[in-house]
Amino acid sequence: MQDPNSKLTLASGRTRLPAAKVQTRLSAIFQALRFDPDIAEEVAAHLVDASLSGVESHGVMRVLEYAAQVESGYLTPSGRPQVLRDDTGGPTRIEAGGGIGIPALRLAYDTCCDEARARGLSALSIRHVGHTGRHGAFAEAAAEAGCLTICLGGGNRQTWRQVAPHGGARAMLPTNPWCIGIPGGDRGPVVLDFATSKIAGGWIYAARSAGALLPEGCVIDAAGHPTRNPEDYFAGGAILPAGGHKGFGLALLGELVGEALLGPSTTECNWLLIALSAERFREAPAMAAAAEEVLDELRRCPPAPGSSGVEIPGERERAHRAASGGIVSVPRDTWTQIERLADRLGVSAT
């Protein structure tokens, strides 16, 4: 197995556990927090898969954040996503009821892709939703089913002021992620899943729980000075936008979609999901062959000095999952906090 390609500089080591054991533990914690058993199992499986895929910011450490949100009343554990259709022919909407967003995003992608396969193109919104997990997992499944998907969103910046706009020194916007997935070549779909900030907000929480330092050049403190200490972010600091004005522009578009088009947003963000059936444009074998020609040429590009070579978006996560051997690697301090949470909730060890 391999440890995740982490952005964190850890002060302590890691705990390595079988994925099945971690998933059982997390599911029990979620049920103790009053999530329905099927929701608890789905969320636990998603977090474990994110960790196995090397996306530590959206992995098992998130149980700590979700628990705090339930206990504060911010997140509604009884919330279950529903598909709402407008009888007048308006767009489909996924209503999450203030609940956790992972089952809502899964339902949204399934629904949107079903509609796209039936009529070629579909667009729907996801509202009143908590944290939606690793979008790349949903986009990958949709691409494997033959759909191109585009997901973006934002809103609720009054609650989630995380990122400074380009040229600014104060947190004003959420991280407003974008995710695009498309059927690929021989190695599977191409999935671009990114925050519009230099680092996803989850990495800040991961660093805090692990007692770790953040990468350089990603975060500023309340005075606008660069910092690697996650506590400086929580004390009035901000994350910087990815690519300067480009990340800011993408974040702004996400905010306008989430708040002006779909709003008002509650709980976390509002999302717009668009799906189209790739086979309406080109038969799957021909598209896969053409895609592989492009991707293979890029992989064979000579590596830059100090680089291991060109990586295709989405392939790193699949390779990491395959190399994990079913073992989840968690910062030791983070796992200690998860065990303390379990003990406090009366969850017995497995």
From TrEMBL:
- List all membrane-crossing ranges: none
Q: Which UniProt keywords apply?
A: Oxidoreductase
Top-level lineage group: Bacteria
Q: Which Gene Ontology molecular function entries are recorded, alphabetically?
A: oxidoreductase activity
Indicate whether Methyltransferase appears among the record's keywords. no
Q: What InterPro entries has UniProt attached to this entry?
A: Mal/L-sulf/L-lact_DH-like_ah, Mal/L-sulf/L-lact_DH-like_NADP, Mal/L-sulfo/L-lacto_DH-like_sf, Malate/L-lactate_DH-like
Q: Pfam family example for this protein?
A: Ldh_2
Presence of keyword Transmembrane helix: no
Stated family = Belongs to the LDH2/MDH2 oxidoreductase family.
Q: Which PANTHER family match?
A: MALATE DEHYDROGENASE, OXIDOREDUCTASE-RELATED
- Name of the featured protein: Ldh family oxidoreductase
> What organism is listed for this UniProt entry?
Ruegeria pomeroyi
